[in-house]
Amino acid sequence: MRHFLSATAISLGMLLSGCATTFTGQVTTFHEWPQQLSSTSYIVERLPAQENNPEYKVYEEELRQQLGLHGFQEVAAGATPALKVNMQYATSPSEIQYSMPWGPSMMDPYWRLHFSRAYQFYPYSPYYFGSPFYMLRTSDVTVRRYYLHQLEISISDFSNGKKLADIKASTEQLNPNITESMPYLIESALKNFPGQNGSTTNVEIPLNKN
């Protein structure tokens, strides 16, 4: 039992202390992308709430860069584009993970509570008085709250409003701030554009952005 507990603690410690070198996300794509498109010119269409949002405008510039890498050309002011692009994003609390020093972590997908202490079991010793069962005491546990960052990019025909592509990208991160994840979410969403219609894929991108 002692060797088992030691091995479990070491394995868990290595897992929690490891540094991620890639961004991992999930991308779902639905599209009716034409095989022959006469023009890939576009404008980014903002929602009223996005017009005076400095944070959104930073992400919009990242979107423009990624669209350019995939052959899209933004039109000059006053020109008529072939496509319009919309972008929305959001963050919501996800899972809480509890990591015990004596065993594997436990997930709590249902109860959204923040516990800081828990019961810990110790093997029976003949020097303990009482019942020959496991002794109990409270001990600190590691609590981790994950956050779900989500991005949606829609591309529509400018002339008639028909939606040609709807792409959703998401990732779970410890950081509640979506700012660091947005460049990777945008890159993930457009990585294999237009992709297979109705598909959901896992995407990994090296963490090389500053």
Automatic annotation (TrEMBL):
UniProtKB keywords: Signal
InterPro entries on file: DUF4136
Boundaries of every DUF4136 domain copy: 28-195
Signal peptide segment: 1-22
Superkingdom of origin organism: Bacteria
Name of protein: DUF4136 domain-containing protein
Species of the source: Undibacterium griseum
Taxonomic classification: Bacteria, Pseudomonadati, Pseudomonadota, Betaproteobacteria, Burkholderiales
